[in-house]
């Protein structure tokens, strides 16, 4: 299609019913894209089983348009955009689900913390499987660890130093030598303070590790090495989406979410493809997979367009090339590639040239002696001629 046609279709693209949108928006700010988002996340969960380690973190879709829940996250590459609380496989970086951030939520006094509620909603499909959940310091808390323990899940994550549950002596780092580790054990829970450099430390909470194992080579405790190994599940997924992105400039936030779903679907499809084709040539890189995927999605529509009798010849040839269809050889169309002297004018000693030719003898014809005839009449003429020859 032409670029103007593509822009027109993009401009008309909608994901919900406009007649009921205002009513649904009173209850849900995400109403304009909620149905599409739920359909996609359900399919992500139904078509894949995550490994024993998953990561929960924030994803930011770059967006500069007007949106009531646009965020500014200086730690992210895009800075401004639409935030999604995502859960990904820590080994394969498969996008397993996400919750769009639609603004600040109020919490009742006896309710769980907002980050804890996000994590519990995301890990609901894997509850009771003894998997480990890796989180950063915005999610990690003693409350989350206890809630996940009830759901038969493990937790490893960094902990903020301003948490009330952190003992004061675990924050003291003055005069401590580098690579110092201190452990604090509780029932089915371990808190450690690791000082990699002078006067700086990091707190890590773990319900998965109970021992005080330290690597003799790196001088790092087991909890730190495990966290570094599994913390990048969402970040790597975000990087893969940026590497080959389908995003186009838009001021409509539902369309930006749609572009994000396309990128996530491409990453997830490649992960499933690698799992199902372990003997595949390693040279089959992700860019080639995305190109093949795009053409396979286009194939049904291309077959329909290829049968259109009014399609331009050059566009029809392009479609046949993509579909790898051998073009059907037809009778000469009556058009020459080169100008030639007219056969009738030559007999009258007149020098006229033309680009048309006779469909039988292929002689050149000028505009005066050219005769146009439709395919139906041409077929009737051929049948009559064959009958006369048989007689």
UniProtKB/TrEMBL annotation:
Location of the PiggyBac transposable element-derived protein domain: 1-270
Pfam families on file: DDE_Tnp_1_7
Domain of life: Eukaryota
InterPro entries, per the entry: AN1-like_Znf, PGBD
Protein name: PiggyBac transposable element-derived protein domain-containing protein
């Amino acid at each position: 299609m032409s670029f103007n046609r593509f822009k027109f279709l993009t401009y008309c693209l909608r994901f919900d019913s406009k007649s009921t949108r205002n009513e649904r928006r009173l209850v849900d700010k995400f109403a304009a894209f909620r149905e599409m988002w739920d359909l996609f996340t359900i399919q992500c969960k139904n078509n894949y089983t995550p490994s024993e380690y998953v990561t929960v973190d924030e994803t930011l879709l770059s967006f500069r348009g007007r949106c009531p829940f646009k965020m500014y996250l200086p730690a992210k590459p895009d800075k401004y955009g639409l935030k999604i609380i995502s859960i990904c496989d820590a080994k394969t970086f498969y996008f397993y689900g996400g919750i769009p951030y639609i603004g600040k939520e109020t919490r009742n006094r006896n309710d769980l913390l907002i980050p804890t509620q996000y994590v519990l909603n995301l890990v609901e499909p894997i509850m009771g499987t003894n998997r480990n959940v890796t989180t950063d310091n915005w999610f990690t808390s003693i409350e989350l660890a206890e809630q996940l323990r009830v759901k038969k899940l493990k937790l490893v994550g960094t902990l903020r130093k301003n948490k009330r549950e952190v003992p004061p002596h675990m924050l003291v780092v003055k005069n401590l030598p580098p690579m110092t580790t201190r452990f604090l054990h509780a029932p089915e829970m371990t808190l450690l303070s690791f000082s990699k450099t002078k006067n700086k430390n990091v707190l890590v909470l773990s319900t998965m590790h109970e021992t005080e194992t330290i690597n003799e080579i790196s001088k790092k405790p087991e909890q730190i090495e495990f966290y570094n190994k599994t913390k990048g599940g969402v970040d790597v997924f975000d990087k893969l989406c940026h590497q080959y992105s389908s995003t186009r400039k838009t001021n409509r936030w539902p369309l930006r979410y749609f572009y994000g779903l396309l990128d996530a679907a491409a990453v997830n499809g490649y992960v499933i493809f690698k799992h199902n084709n372990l003997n595949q040539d390693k040279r089959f890189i992700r860019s080639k997979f995305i190109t093949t995927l795009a053409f396979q999605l286009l194939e049904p529509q291309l077959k329909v367009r290829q049968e259109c009798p009014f399609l331009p010849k050059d566009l029809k040839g392009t479609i046949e090339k993509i579909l790898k269809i051998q073009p059907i050889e037809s009778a000469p169309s009556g058009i020459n590639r080169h100008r030639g002297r007219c056969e009738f004018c030559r007999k009258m000693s007149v020098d006229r040239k033309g680009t048309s030719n006779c469909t039988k003898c292929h002689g050149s014809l000028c505009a005066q002696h050219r005769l146009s005839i439709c395919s139906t009449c041409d077929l009737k003429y051929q049948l009559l001629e064959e009958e006369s020859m048989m007689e």
